Amino acid sequence: MHITSISGSPSERSRSAWLTQFALTRLEGVATRSAHITVRDLPAGALLFADVTDPAVAQAVDAVAMADLVIVGTPIYKAAYAGALKVFLDLLPPDALRGKTVLPLATGGSAAHLLALDYALKPVLSALGARHVLDGVFATDAQLQRHEAGGYVPDPELLARLDRALEPLTPRMRGETALSCRS
Q1: pLDDT on residue 86
Q2: What is the number of alpha carbons within 13 Å of residue 21 lying toward its C-beta?
């Protein structure tokens, strides 16, 4: 399975970027190939003007095209996902997520932002052709505590929810193979 994760956070030390990378790491055993896109590292001008001929943007678009599973991570600000992520999603072809499984992840200051996954992000993923969108995982700031050595430490409840969301993608305890991610 080819997995591409997209971190839509504009911040360098972001909880959502960490959560997105952490989810990708949890799937290492089932990934035959993986790619990680950090939207903040793509050229701003190329993103704003939807210049898909820019080499970095073209490489990111290709990584999405090649993926079986796309993990989309974003912080939630003012009941909406990050503008940087929106700019990237807008330059993808209209059917960019067709036939792909998508796992939405989000972080926010409080549970008051939880519904942004369902009401803001999922409709855009559907508009891009995603038909198999896994249950999203939302984490509050309190559920991802900054670690003194860098990174974050997820609380046990968040870790359990993430593992439940990833379960359809990982080999079952009974020894079955992982479910196909293609629709």
Answers
A1: 97
A2: 13
